[in-house]
Amino acid sequence: AIAATMLIRIRNNVGTWRIDLSSGGPDPSIVDLYRAIRAEHGEGLVFTTPLSKDPRGSGAMAEDDESSLSVDLGLRNGDMLHGRVDPETVASVGDGGAQTSVTFVGTDGNIHRRAATADDLGRSFRPGMQALRDMKMQWTLNDFMAMDDRFIFKIKRQDAADCPHVSMESGEANGFQSYLREFGFQRGRMGYLYGRYEDAEDAPDEKKKEKEGPAADDHKPTAAPGARKVIVECIYEPPQSYDAESDTIDPLDDPDGDERVPILAAHLGLERVGWIFGHAPREEGFQLSSHEILTAAELQLEAAGGLEKSTPFVTVKVTVGPDGNAVVDAFQVSRQCMEMVAEGALDVHPTRPGYCKVVDTFTAVMEGKNSDEVENNFFLAVVPIGRHVSDVYVQQFPRANRDGQPQTHEAMRRQLSKSGTRGWEFIDLLADFSLLLYLCEFQGVGSDIMQKICASVIDRKVPLDDGYKIMLAGMAGMDGAY
Known about the structure:
22 strands, 8-stranded mixed sheet, alpha+beta, globular, 4-stranded mixed sheet, 12 helices
């Protein structure tokens, strides 16, 4: 059975929808999902491309498929599906009595949605909400104001980022930039940052500080006392697709990576500390699109485990400046942005990528005036960024999931054959996150050999048994010394 909360995100050509299936039974099916979507967005809704876990449309989900979302498809709360709809068939609140959805605050204190009836329209407390008397019969003024406050956000900039500084491993950063440059920075690319959090009592080392991009001129936040900085050691780039028309990057289904990467990182004492993406040049002042804002907020929420705690989790973006040099900036979205995304108050703007659309049920107040959109920069806090050279890891093996850069035993042989030359030792060359991830395909991420290799990588005083070296050298087709 699935968890009590089951929310599925649907990304399509008119926006991103959040479909609450929590009240749809213990184990909803694909049929139930389509039914819930039409309950919210119109019974006449037409899918021009069926739902799929893959943005490219493979593995399409038929509308009459009774397969379980959780058991058969492995979907979890918050997972993303993709599809396309006919925009003219999407209903909105007040569309001539078309069936939509209504929002209400449940007995658990959380915001939920249910299918609306014609009776709901025109008498709702807010657009897309139930009428007050449908929620409870007796209301006091305090009850009403408390209810209304749940749906009002007074937009304000968060001056201090929760993360005071992020340091990117130089080789990893250069490798990511170089791949973007192969396509003239015209193809978007993303990856997850793995590293560690450290106490940030000391100011960043200015000798390591990287040239900051235009975002640094907006404002220079000071982190709160007790904040932790981010040290990035590795980047994992999942399978992904890029849509040039919408300028969006979508991670594809990655069951092997989902299983292996977190376990391998844990063996190495690392964790996911941020994400990175690259994009083509944009107009001055346009930092993150609404799609990227929502992604950053969702990832920060996941890292923080909700809204109760802050997180140093960062967003790093890479582009190219007018002079042809790469420009790297780091951000966090504000805690207010995280809250609005958690409540379903923000969506992708259909026409202005530099703005987030405010969902009709909610009210955003900017400078004393109601607004149906929020400029994305209001949600951003700049994080100073620098570089370091890792004293543990190298970056020589081809990265996973890149076009034209296959990971092979021959590439492994070329790398490990450097052992004994120019000061390289065998374990030094094994200390490559991409190579270790490749080895997991053949040895198993939880195997004894992988755990022993990782132990020797992070502590060179722990020797790697000669038997393991012989086995790895044989796997790589090496005849010489190791």
